[in-house]
Amino acid sequence: MNAEFLITRPDSTERLFSIGESNQALFSILTRLPYFTVVYLQEGSVELKADLSIYHVSAPAVLFFSPFQPFLIKKSEENIPMKVLHFHPDFFCILKHQKEVSCNGVLFNNLFAPPFVEITPEQSTVLESVFKQMQDESSHEELAQNDLLLSYLKIFLIHTTRYKAQNQAQVEDQIAQNSNPDHSILQKYKTMIEEFFVKEHSPSIYADKLNVSLKTLGKLTKKYFDRTPSDLIQERLMMEAKRELYLTDKSVKEIAYLLGFEDEFYFSRLFKKIPIPLLSTTGRQ
Where are the domains of the chain? Predict the structure, then answer.
C-alpha cells in the first residue's frame, strides 16, 4: 500500500489502525484479515467476491469487511485508486460502541445485505473530507493524535451507516411497492431469526411458522441472500458468539448454553467456524 500511516501495539508489530491509498492489485487474491477493513472506491468499478457471493460495484462506493471475512476485489482496469482503512477491535470495538455509531448489523455483520454501499457524488464529497482529515492528522505526531483519529473514524462510520441504511430502506420500499410476495416472507423470516435464533436452530420450524415449505424458503434465501435458511441461522448464532467473546469472559461452554445448545460438543464443532486467532486472543476454551 502507498503512503500508509500505521498504529501498532506498543509491545508488538500487530496493526491497530492504519490509513492509506493504493493503486496496486490490493486484495486481488482471497484475503482474510484479523481486523475490520473499509475500502473507499472513488473511481471505476470492481468485481467483489465476498463469502459465497459475487457483486459488481461502481464508484463512488464504500466496501466493509469484518475480521476474517474472506473477500477478493478484482479491478476492471489497472491503477484504480482505493483508499483503505484498517482498524482492530481493540482500537475501536463496534460492539461496545453500538449505541454511538450503530454500524454493527448495517455495515458489518449484516446477514441480509451486500458488504458495500454505492453512494452519491454529494455523499462521496462528505466522506472525502473526513478521510482527508484523518490523513492530515496522521501526517504529523501531535498531542492526543490517536484520540482524534478515533473521533474521525467514528464520524466516517456514522456517515456511511446513514448512507447504507437509507439505501436499504429505499430498496425495501421499492420491493414492497412492487407487491412482491417474496418480500413479505423474507421480512418475516428476518424478524423471526432475530427473535428465535437462540431457541430455534432448525430451519424447518421457521418454514412451518411461515406456512411455506422448507424448499420454498430455501429458494427464496438462495435467490435474495445467496445462502440457505440454515446458513442464515448459523451465521446469526456465530455473530452472537463473537459478541459474547468480545464483551464478556464467559467460557465456550457457557456461551453454548446461552445460545440454546444442550450438546456442548455439537456447539464446539460449530464454534470452530470462528477463526482460531480470535479464540486465542481471548484465551477462551
Answer: 2-175, 181-282
pLDDT of residue 139: 86
Nearest by Cα to 149 from 161, 132, 137, 131: 137
pLDDT greater than 90 at residue 147? yes
Has residue 1 got a pLDDT over 70?
A: no
Cα 68 from Cα 37, distance rounded (Å): 10
Rounded Cα gap, residues 203 and 207, in angstroms? 6
Q: What is the mean pLDDT of residues 157-175?
A: 83
Q: Is residue 33 within 8 Å of 66, Cβ to Cβ? A: no
Q: Write the CA distances from 44 to 41, 53, 76, 197, integer angstroms.
A: 8, 20, 7, 40
pLDDT for res 24: 64
Superfamily of segment(s) 2-175: Regulatory protein AraC (2.60.120.280)
Q: What distance in Å separates the CA atoms of residue 209 and residue 146, rounded to the nearest whole number?
A: 50
The helix/strand/coil state of 83 is strand
